[in-house]
Design brief:
Elements: E1 11-14, H1 16-21, H2 26-33, H3 36-41, E2 50-54, E3 61-65, H4 66-73, H5 88-98, E4 104-105, H6 106-113, H7 118-127, E5 134-136, H8 137-142
Antiparallel strand pairs: 1-4, 1-5, 2-3
Helix pairs in contact: 6-7
C-alpha cells in the first residue's frame, strides 16, 4: 500500500525484490555502476564473492556483496561516478547504491546528483514508470523487508 503523498523529505530506497519479480538481475545493475577499475576486477558479476565489511563506527564485521562494497568504498567516491552526462534514472540508482541502499529523500538525492530538482526527482519517483524499482522506504518497512548494506 503506497504512502498517501510523498514529498521531497520522503525517504526512498531500491526495492531489491522488484528485480526478482521482474526477472531482472540486480547484480548486473550493480556491475554496470562499477568504475572501469572495479569492473576489470569483477568482469563477471555472478562470480563476485562476498567480502567482510567493517562498520566504520561500530567495528561490526558483516559479509557483504563484493560489487556493492566496491561501489560504496571506491566507485561512489570518484568524480565520474555521478557525472553531468549520467542519465537521471541511472544517477538515482547510483546514488542509492553508493549510499548502501540506506534511504534518501528526493532532496538528498538532488544534493548528491545535482540534476533536475528535488521536486522533479520526486515527480519521477512518484510516477514510477522509468524507475519503478525505487520505492518509499515506508512501503518496504510495512512488509518487513530491510534491504540495505550497512556501513
Amino acid at each position: 500500500m503506497p504512502i498517501a503523498r510523498p514529498d521531497i523529505h520522503t525517504p526512498f530506497l531500491i526495492d531489491l525484490s522488484w528485480f526478482e519479480k521482474n526477472s531482472r538481475d540486480f547484480r548486473e545493475e550493480m556491475q554496470a555502476a562499477l568504475c572501469e577499475e572495479c569492473r576489470a576486477r569483477y568482469p563477471d558479476p555472478m562470480q563476485a564473492r562476498a567480502v567482510d565489511r567493517v562498520h566504520p563506527t561500530t567495528g561490526e564485521v558483516a559479509q557483504v556483496d563484493a560489487l556493492w562494497e566496491s561501489i560504496i568504498d571506491h566507485c561512489a567516491h570518484r568524480a565520474d561516478y555521478l557525472s553531468p552526462t549520467t542519465p537521471l534514472t541511472a544517477a538515482i540508482l547510483r546514488a542509492l547504491l553508493g549510499n548502501g541502499n540506506q534511504p534518501l529523500s528526493s532532496e538528498q538525492l538532488y544534493q548528491r546528483i545535482k540534476k533536475n530538482s528535488a521536486e522533479g526527482i520526486l515527480r519521477m519517483l512518484s510516477k514510477g514508470t522509468d524507475i519503478e524499482f525505487v520505492v518509499p522506504a515506508e512501503e518496504k518497512k510495512r512488509v518487513g523487508d530491510a534491504e540495505c548494506v550497512s556501513g
